[in-house]
Each structure stands twice: as C-alpha cells, then as structure tokens.
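Incident review: delayed structure delivery

Summary: a single-chain prediction request sat in the queue longer than the usual turnaround. Root cause was a stuck worker, restarted by the on-call engineer. No data loss occurred. The affected request and its eventual output are reproduced below so the record is complete for anyone auditing the incident later.

Affected input:
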Amino acid sequence: MRTINERLDEILPRITDPSFRENKGLGNEIGYHIFDYEPEDEMLVRERVKFIKDSVNNDASDQNIIEFDLYEVVLNILENKGYLQKNFDMEQKKGSNFILNATRKSLRLTLNNDLVIKYIADRVQDNDIVFITGVGKAFPIIRSHVILNNLHKAVGENPVVMFFPGRYDGQELVLFGEIKDENYYRAFQLIDY
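Output delivered after worker restart:
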C-alpha cells in the first residue's frame, strides 16, 4: 500500500491529463472521483489541495479548479440568509439536535431548491474542475452521499473530485472509517492505494 504522500503526488498529473477532462468512464458514467484518506491526514490533504489548486489556476492553461468547502458553504448560506446568529442563539436555548434539524431544513437539503447545490451551481463555470472539501467538517449537517447524488444539477459535465476523510471502496462511503453513508456507486477512485 502506498503512502498518503505518494498518492497525493499523483493527483496533479491525473487531473491535468486530457483524458480527465473528458469526464467519462467506460460506460459513460458521470465524472465523479473520490480521493479517500485517513482522517488523521486531513491537514496534509488540505495543504496539498491548496498547492494543486494554485498550480493549476496559475498555469497558462484553460483549466481552473474551483473548491467548495462544504462547511464554509453552509456558513456562507446561513450568514447571507441572516440565520447564522439566530442558529447560535437557538442552539443555546434548544440544544444541538434541534438546531441540526432546523439547519438542514433551512438549507433545503435533497429538495429541488437545495441551497447548497444552488450555491455551487451559481459559481461553476464550463471549464472548472470542481473540488469538494470540508466533508468531515460539515458532518452531520451534510452527508457526502447527498451531495454526490444531487451535484449533477450544479456541475453538469464538469469533473468533480471529493476529498473524503474515510474509506471509499467503489460502493460504500465510510466517513472517518466508522460512519457508514448510504451506498454510492457512480464515483471512481481518483488515486488507487
């Protein structure tokens, strides 16, 4: 099994390869990719994501990486709606479980007007490679399979890479190596072990 650094070193060549932009698997599946990693490697992965993003975006090519940190997206949406401080106040009064459910409802997760998906859709351009980060930070408000199942509405044909602190075996997402998400079969492993 390769080290996290060896796997991280392969991301930049992989996503800049012209075949990656074609965004199709053997059966013309949508181009979703998951880079899974041990949760204790989170800070290393964050640093490398920044490096990869800067490398691609500062290159003279027509490629661009746009990153969506799910936790930051949630905070931005709540702030823009005027709900963020209200959420803090309500959590003090009614507890974390109450505010978790209220936050999910206010984000309209999984509905046709899902605010997280709309936030992403409003910012993605045709030539973008979409990086989804902050999966662990956004849990349990947002579950990764919910984003993957609904993201096609936002990104169309753009390739997507989700950085996932846990395990993905091609069928099942296990956040932090412990919390099983619903099965998700349409994503490819970005870099094998």
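Verification: The beta strands are 32-37, 64-69, 128-133, 160-168, 172-175, 179-183, 187-189.
Action items: add queue-age alerting; document worker restart procedure.
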